[in-house]
Automatic annotation (TrEMBL):
InterPro entries: CheY-like_superfamily, Sig_transdc_resp-reg_receiver
One GO biological process term: phosphorelay signal transduction system
Residue ranges constituting the Response regulatory domain according to the UniProt record: 3-119
Protein name as it appears in the record: Response regulator
Keywords carried by this UniProt record: Phosphoprotein, Two-component regulatory system
Organism domain of life: Bacteria
Species in which this protein is naturally found: Methylobacterium nonmethylotrophicum
SUPFAM superfamilies cross-referenced by the UniProt entry: CheY-like
Gene3D superfamilies per the UniProt record, alphabetical: 3.40.50.2300
Modified residues (4-aspartylphosphate): D52
Length: 125
């Protein structure tokens, strides 16, 4: 099963998501700020990254740009997780280098569909 790097600083969100993703058979690697996320993307080689955009140390916008500008991590799909759900926000995260966008609060079944699409596989059941 695919390895997911979850970069999220709010404990209730990363706890909820990591437990549910693991139950679906995904391997989950956690990072709690953008700098740690970039480092773990380089060392753990995830198949996909779920990236909160409002992170400490290095925000998600900067982390996405760093990941997409590095030849070692540029091809890893990134799904932005963000509370920003205003008109134009999806375009902003795509411009920052994310491949898809998921507004918070998280709709887990929709997120599974997005993960499957990004990986080119059917969603885990």
């Amino acid at each position: 099963m695919a390895k997911i790097l979850l970069v999220e600083d709010h404990e209730e969100i990363w706890d909820f998501l990591s437990r549910r993703l693991k139950r679906r058979g995904y391997e989950v690697v956690l990072a709690h700020d953008g700098e740690e996320g970039v480092m773990k993307a380089r060392t753990s080689r995830p198949d996909i990254i779920l990236l909160d955009m409002n992170l400490p140390v290095l925000d998600g916008w900067s982390a996405a740009r760093a990941l997409k500008s590095d030849a070692e991590t540029a091809r890893i799909p990134i799904i932005a997780l963000t509370a920003h759900a205003m008109s134009g926000d999806r375009e902003k995260v795509i411009q920052a280098g994310c491949d898809d966008y998921h507004p918070k609060p998280v709709d887990f079944s929709k997120l599974l569909t997005q993960i499957g699409a990004a990986l080119g596989t059917p969603p885990a059941s």
